Amino acid sequence: MRIVVAMSGGVDSSVAAALLAEQGLDVIGLSMQLYDQRGQQTFGSCCTLDDLHDARRVADAIGIPHYILNFERQFQDTVISNFVREYAAGRTPLPCAHCNSDLKFATLLDRARGLGAEQVATGHYARVEQSASGRWLLKRSADLAKDQSYFLASLTQAQLARAAFPVGDLEKSEVRAQARRLGLNVAEKPDSQEICFVPDGDYASFVADRAPAVARAGAIVDQRGDVLGSHGGVHRFTVGQRKGLGISSPAPLYVLKIEAESGKITVGSRDALDQTTLTASGVNWVATEAPSGWVPIAAQIRHRHRAAAGQVRAMDHDRAACVFNEPQPAITPGQAVVFYDDDVVVGGGWID
Amino acid sequence: MQRIYFDHNATTPIDPAVADTMAVALREEFGNPSSVHHFGQRAKAVVDQARSAVAALIGADPSEVVFTSGGTESDNFAIRGTAEALERTGRRHLIASAIEHEAVLNTLKALARRGSDTTLLPVGDTGITSSDDLRAALRDDTALVSVMHANNEIGTIQPITELARVAHERGALFHTDAVQSAGKLPIDVKTLGVDLLTISAHKFYGPKGVGAIWIRRGLRILPSFTGGKQERNRRAGTENVTGIIGMGVAAEVVRAKMAAECARLAMLRDRLEEGILRAVPRTMVNGAKTSRVANTTNISFDRVEAESLLIGLDLEGIAVSTGSACSSGTLEPSHVLKAMGFPAHRTQNSIRFSLGAANTEAEVDRAIAVLPGVVEKLRNLTRTPVRA
Questions:
Q1: Residue B330 and residue A69: Cβ atoms within 8 Å?
Q2: pTM of the model
């Protein structure tokens, strides 16, 4: 079977490719060029020229063909523009999730199929399997500390049917051990932690460069509406943020709400940050069809958040309502909320 | 998997006679041609032997041939060397065609950043420069005109003799990048009437890393880098003796075979071209078919991305290209096709097939048989349903 592996030049996708090749599959390595490399060598933290070269060397080491596809325009259209729009709207985006659902398992998958491949494999820590009823299930990876299923919850059944995650059953330490066994030069390469396309993690400048209108002064107010201070643009803030407010106060203040229209940022005490309910839009139901009644789940609202017990119910227009058993801090509009039943993804959407 | 190589304009496989001669020379001709002693004399002799062979390929006097590291260095040498030599005279204007190789275009850009004025001549959908356009662009302060002899992407041949004559009318010098024409067309520098000409060994079955520049006797251009007095003070650096020997043998071999080989390649190319146009719907040849080197055809495939077609063909063992590349290995839209006025989608859906010595009718027929299926799959790309 011919299968495409999306190779970032990192150790996970490298080992994914190697394992598939060892299984005797007809593996093709594809790397995506996502942004213009000419100006800067260190544009972001992933998929730089050096990373593409690493991918090429790994492909050569394991004996598979490797090609680079220019997806600059598509990346701009699907990931970067969404990123900028969300920050400008006072929300905190999750670009990696969009890259997965709108690029890797969409455009790249389509190209892969045009080249005769059945599936796209990535180095993600996640698992996909088919249930007895034929439904495609997305599950957490074996290594829970590395689990990336949170970023894959928007994948449709059609996408999951053509997705493969070869390292999803392995611990990270095993993956590095495999890389060493295979003599891959990326065995000790550090994992890329930041969003791949933002230089030095400076999101605010990145957004302001592309949407200058966001750099508009606005008021920082308390929950009563009294003005406490001012800020230089809503794009600099996220719900739950404590630093950078420029307000001295006896107790720490946290961002509670961001209103892009008026430019108003509401801050309050740590207690005020806790909420028990949320609604989500653009919900993708994975394990089941949309549940009309309340079903018990554990909902994860951030990558680094321990899924908290609660209940979820589908609403109209691809929306869902979720109620937590215990209040959760910093429920952030724009982030993904993913509903789990043990380690199975029930569904996921975007927090309103 | 049977592999078919249709990318001879990118590079050519080394001729066996060239490889054998170089293998021996690598061990036996190790002397430095600048040395006074026997070993140096030997090395100098074989370099000059190669020089004669290369000169014969272009109808030149050997003393006018300078060896370099390849086409790019030669182009840089020709253009920068002339620009710098003529700066003092107030001639700071440079002209080139819009379809030159990057080695010429980027050198012009670099010179523009240092104060030169540059003009690029349009080509229209034939891909051929007109002498009227050149005449209109020439100025009293034009130092140099650079127009390639044959274009690497579409294979069109420029009317060099005519263009050089027009340039000389206004006192400008004329350089032609003959990297793609050497070995494919008979070249005579006297008939062409040019002042500078550049070639590269690996385009005519010689090794990579060696090329030459022909400088008309009496012309003084400034060397690109400074150092020793090699190549009569025109190109510093210890000569790449083995490479030069290889270039010499390649020049001899290709010159002897040229007439017969070009006729054979033209037949194969026409067979491939006609076969593709017939077997694959919505295909078109880019550029004038009349004034073209024998081995090249550049075809646009409607509604297919060249990038994917390249990969799809490679997976079937067929090696082709688009003629343009960039450092990361992805493709940029062809500046040649853009200059010819084609719309954006056509600049990104065109493939170059460039044939050479090893290609056969059977290979051509196999490519014609394989192409329709690859194109079909790509044209019928289904879009996976995604979450909005």
A1: yes
A2: 0.90
